[in-house]
Amino acid sequence: MELVIDKVSMRFKDKKAVSNISLKLTPGVWRLLGANVAGKTTLMRIIAGILKPTSGQVLYDGVPIRTLGEEYRALFGYLPQEFGFPQEFTVKDYLIYVAALKGMTKRQGRKRIHELLEQVSLLEVRNRKIARLSGGMKRRVGIAQALLNDPEVLVLDEPTGGLDPGERVRFRNLLSEFVHDRIVLISTHIVPDVEYIAGCHAMIREGKLLASGTTEELVRLVEGKVWTCTVPAQAVAEYERRLRIVSLRNEHDGSVSVRYLAKKPCNDHSAAAVSRLEDLYLWMFPQSGGADRKKSSRKQAVSGNL
Amino acid sequence: MKILQMELRRMMKTRLTWGLLALALLLSALLAYLPVTYCYSSYTDEEGNEIHLSGLKSIAHEKERQANASGIVTPERVREAVETYQACLAAYGVTESYDLPEGVYEREILPIVPLLHGVKEAFADPDTGMAPALMEIDPERIDDYDSVCEARIAALMALEQPDHPAVQRKAAEMYRQVERPFKVYPGMSSVIMDYQNIMGFLVLLFCVVIAAPVFSADYQSGADDILRCTRHGRRRLGVAKVLAALLVSGVSFVLCAAVYILIADSLFGWECLRTSVQMMYSIVTLADLDVGGLQFLFTAAGLLSVLASVSFTLFLSAGCKSTVASLSSALVFGILPVVVSMAVPGALSTWLCCVLPASGTSIQASILYAITDFQFLNLGGLAVWTPYAMIGTCVVEIPLFSFLAVWSYCGHAGK
């Protein structure tokens, strides 16, 4: 089982959202990484068959998904980044409706709906109108509908947005149980959500694929570029200006431990650190993640929370 | 089938659908009763008291007074009625019935009024179309009433369509096919049909409002992205949505029409349905129908028009990204025939009204008025009577726009 994205490009009027991306997705959890407006959602919508690429194609087991049509959609599950529900439905009615559209029998549908409602903790609100649910609950309904038909290919665009930490843990566990022998493609900015279950990653920027591979393969790209050092608290601002800071941690003696990215150490007392996925992300997307991260890191460091 | 059931359930769950359907039924009942409130008559009783009647009492009174006029309208009976009329006016030395002394009209003329319908029109001047007064008509000429009427339709068509001999021939041919002698059963007026027209127009607008968000609401809310990624979320869902909307609209229209007809006909009398349309509208009306047939044909054509409008609305809905856009554009097209019939002159108006899907029940341009009018579309040497053109257009438009709606939905690229 494989899903091949073959030289896919997508242009919207004068803007190229996806540029000649080729990627082979095999069973396992794939994480699609990229800053905002990188083209992740567009690529996912192409994989979902919602958008027709300007050029290139997506193939499932060697057959274009457009040729497979209904067959492909029968084994496909999708959670969009932004989505809505028909206002008139209760949670249960909506899932019954989607189950019918997914070609499930009434019996299959009811059984699976009950299981999923339990797994996403929505059993108690199953008869409530979706319009009256909180944002987190709505997203869980979205997750449940995506999993209804036990899809072989599951595409989740920012699935954890709006979920509280407990819900995120439950989602992670649910996904861990589900992923066996399936292709799961997830786009999320929240690294810990899939850090332990995503075996492979694809990084895109401005519509172009920068890198792809397993966690180990990708982390190797920043090997020798991650450093740590301890600096006086008053020097942190200077370091933030000069370096790409990954994290800051206040030490008991008033100094600050700095983890940063650089081709060479910035001082003599810097030591090489073991690279992680987060380092890679900041290395690949310095503008998007860096600026926000610097601000939050600094705040946390100053308040002693790190 | 299962998806259609789900879609029907979904549609029937929305408050908008229920609210509008309930309102449509209520309005149908109200509109059916409304013409009764306009019925008014008065007479002088044996003791010389003037009695005023309204509503159902007035209808019953007039029916009773005109009971002898009901039945087959033979030339002899028409001639007799004209002679009675002329003798009555001559006896009182007047030339118009409104100059008669109080109570005489109700006593002498009212009972024969149904038989006098269309006589003046039949004897209209062939060159000017001006109708003479009943006093000016030679009763002997009524013996050949059918020929007078046929000469009248020929003269009328020559006046209205001087450049289209094919239309003139077609109209004359159609009129020859009309069953004669006519029949008349007093009690019902054309107002009943006018109100049925208003009812149809309102139900059509309600159906358009129900159908307008069918596709666009899901686009707008983002629900569509999920649905179209499911196994049956493209063509089958599109077809189910179209069928559900057509079913809901069709059933609603039939229900409302049934309520209207049941109430109106019960109030005015079912026997009135046997009246020839020529005895309610123009004496030279081309349709070979009685009022019951007209009511049925108008309902059937109205249903086709509602279905054509709904399928066109669904096509618009499948192409619009917001409910406001789909609703406003659908309403514009729903009302357009009214505007066209008022503002667009000549043949263009006739053509547009035949093509626009909402024309069938439109105010002023509906199929009811087309049936009782003398408009033809000229296609080269071919003359097509506008009711046929309107019905034919709807029959083509329903599958065409339904197909286009599904096609547009399947090809809809997301936001």
Describe the structure.
The complex is a heterodimer of chains A (306) and B (415). Chain A is an alpha/beta fold and 306 residues long. Chain A has 12 helices and 14 strands. Chain A has helices spanning 40-47, 65-68, 70-74, 91-101, 106-119, 135-147, 165-178, 191-195, 215-219, 236-242, 277-284, 286-303, and strands spanning 3-12, 15-25, 28-33, 55-60, 63-64, 76-79, 153-157, 183-187, 200-205, 208-214, 226-232, 244-250, 255-261, 271-272. In chain A, the strands form 3 sheets. Chain A has a 6-stranded mixed β-sheet, sandwiched between helices. Chain A has a 4-stranded antiparallel β-sheet with strand order 2-1-4-5. Chain A is globular and about 70 Å long. In chain A, 42% of the residues are buried. Helix content of chain B is 64%, strand content 6%. Chain B has helices spanning 2-13, 15-37, 55-65, 75-91, 104-109, 113-116, 119-122, 145-160, 165-177, 191-211, 213-221, 223-227, 235-268, 291-319, 323-343, 346-355, 367-371, 386-410; strands spanning 40-44, 50-54, 71-73, 182-184, 376-379, 382-385. Chain B has a two-stranded antiparallel ribbon with strand order 1-2. A two-stranded antiparallel ribbon of chain B has the order 3-4. In chain B, strands 5-6 form a two-stranded antiparallel sheet. In chain B, a hairpin with a 2-residue loop joins strand 5 and strand 6 (382-385). The interface between A and B is medium-sized, with 35 and 26 residues.
